[in-house]
Design goal:
Length: 562
């Protein structure tokens, strides 16, 4: 093409554009667009083969990558890139260019409105990144909803997700690092001996491998929120159940085998879950990996993102153990609900707890329940209905149309009936049968107004097949023990407020309440052992001093570092 021809006006499919002239960045000469113009979406649809200059070369490379496993773009590309790829591939190769399409929903403001500068509801992504961090924002989008749904973005939701998952994981990691530093614990010097582990450690490792398995399967099937929820549930259980139940093992003196087991189990769980979560929260997990792994093993892989995704150890998965612990946790939740109903603090010991469940648990589990709920004895019972009374009235809007003339007799029969027996019949058969003056009457649960009342001194809660009853009658001995628990808690709070280190020895003071001082004197050894005190002085105060109200008893207490 001659120079004159190149300089001619370019006719485009947009008739109002007469000519496009650009300057060459190298020579400064004019550049003109060629007249052979095609819609740019053709280029996008040609991407799978055009990027490799196929069919002119790279045939094997193209065939390895075609069709793609998945493509992902926002929902507005349905009529754009998704379509152009499909149309051209069907025309040229008679098959789809992708196996899966992951459509992304649009980001909206917290009221579900489209973000717009003119509305003033747009969020600057860089401001959000600086304020909340990249990991927190990534995590919010993973956990909030499926990728193809619109996402409402606002700071409160991001912070809540950060608190529930990332802060919990980081606090668990920080707990391990704190005590590992105190004990100079080096995980490279020990092995995780599964056969020597106690039940709680085996449970955590089972849950860990179940979680890795679930996350791997969910990600393979593009189930992003499900994978995120599996991670969040495990981290919550690891922190709020395993670590909380195992804290005293980390506090133990020396380095006995049980303490090594606790360290190695938690270490393995933290490293493994960090690798599992690394694709989702890359920066935080990298920090954890560098400190947990690279700091003690210079030959370890350079970055967590160069490590393989964790493999599942099937031998460590114990479904029965997980089911038993899940039932235990359900019982504990019901027990806490009973305490809340009775308005009894968890630090106040309770005498007896009755449990009705699908199966009875052995002593290992009942001891955990007793310790967790601060009860002296846990009894499994086939029937806890004796602690609950039921009364019935007819539901007029349903019973009236069915048995109009018999309504008075039904009301009287329900007043006279054995409530417990009637409730058992209703649960077993789905109907309550009555004989009203020779007439058969059948009432379902929707035909009845059912009221429950609990035996005085007992509180109950139920969920499905599981029921819990607490005996809330407190003896003087139980009340005194409750004072001891409260005193220990207050001293521990003062230790923290005074800025003492975890292992600092202290001196404890109390003044101004004879009842509290008598309790402290009677339980001196127990209190000193719990709060790491070498001395207890009653009748005076020194050091960090604070006034307390312990079960309506005012007292002034002090703590001093030795």
């Amino acid at each position: 093409m001659s120079g004159d021809e190149k300089a001619k006006t370019v006719e485009l499919h947009r008739p109002y554009i007469d000519e496009i002239t650009l300057k060459c960045p190298e020579c400064g000469g004019e550049m003109h667009r060629v007249p052979e113009v095609i819609d740019c979406w053709f280029d996008s649809g040609a991407m799978p083969f055009a990027q490799h200059h196929y069919p002119f070369e790279n045939k094997e490379l193209f065939e390895q990558q075609f069709p793609a496993n998945f493509i992902s773009e926002a929902v507005d590309q349905t009529r754009g890139w998704f379509y152009s790829l499909l149309a051209e591939s069907t025309l040229l190769f008679n098959k789809a260019p992708y196996k899966n399409v992951i459509v992304l929903g649009h980001v909206q403001d917290e009221n579900g409105q489209k973000m717009s500068k003119s509305k003033g509801n747009a969020v600057d992504p860089f401001d959000a990144l600086n304020k909340y961090g990249a990991d927190a924002i990534r995590w919010y989008f993973y956990i909030n909803s499926a990728p193809w749904l619109p996402n409402r973005f606002h700071g409160k939701a991001v912070v809540e997700g950060q608190r529930k998952f990332m802060s919990t994981l980081w606090n668990t990691y920080a707990f391990f690092v704190l005590y590992a530093d105190i004990d100079n614990f080096d995980p490279t010097k020990y092995n995780l001996e599964y056969d020597q582990l106690p039940v709680m450690d085996k449970w955590l490792l089972s849950r860990l491998n179940t979680t890795v398995q679930a996350v791997d399967n969910d990600l393979a099937n593009y189930k992003i929120p499900e994978a995120a929820r599996a991670l969040q549930e495990f981290v919550d259980e690891m922190s709020n159940w395993y670590v909380r139940r195992s804290r005293e093992r980390f506090w133990a003196k020396g380095m006995e085998q049980d303490k090594i087991n606790a360290y190695m189990t938690l270490y393995h769980a933290l490293v493994t879950i960090a690798k599992t979560a690394a694709p989702m929260i890359p920066f935080m997990t990298e920090d954890m990996y560098q400190n947990l792994v690279r700091s003690v093993d210079k030959d370890a892989i350079e970055s967590i993102h160069l490590c393989d995704f964790p493999t599942v150890n099937e031998a460590w998965i114990d479904k029965d153990l997980e089911a038993d612990m899940k039932e235990l946790l359900e019982i504990v939740v019901l027990g806490r609900a009973c305490r809340n109903t009775a308005n009894i603090k968890n630090r106040q010991p309770i005498g007896t707890m009755y449990v009705k469940a699908e199966k009875k648990m052995d002593k290992f589990y009942t001891d955990i329940i007793a310790d967790e709920l601060n009860v002296k004895e846990v009894k499994f019972a086939d029937d806890v209905e004796s602690f609950i009374s039921y009364s019935f009235k007819p539901q007029l809007r349903t019973v009236g149309p069915k048995y109009g003339k018999l309504l008075g007799g039904i009301r009287q029969a329900l007043t006279d009936i054995d409530g417990t027996a009637a409730m058992n019949e209703l649960r077993t058969n789905g109907v309550l049968k009555l004989d009203i003056n020779g007439n058969d009457v059948e009432l379902t649960e929707e035909d009845l107004l059912i009221e429950t009342a609990q035996t005085e001194g007992y509180v109950s809660e139920s969920d499905g097949e599981t029921s819990v009853v607490l005996d809330t009658n407190l003896t003087p001995e139980l009340i005194e023990e409750g004072f001891v628990r409260e005193i220990i808690s207050k001293i521990q709070t003062m230790r923290k407020e005074a800025g003492f280190e975890v292992m600092d020895k202290i001196k404890v003071y109390a003044h101004g309440n004879d009842k509290i001082q008598d309790v402290m004197k009677a339980h001196e050894d127990e209190i000193k052992s719990e709060v790491l005190a070498d001395e207890m002085v009653l009748g005076e105060t020194d050091g960090y001093v604070k006034e307390w109200n312990i079960n309506k008893e005012a007292v002034t207490m002090g703590v001093k570092k030795l």
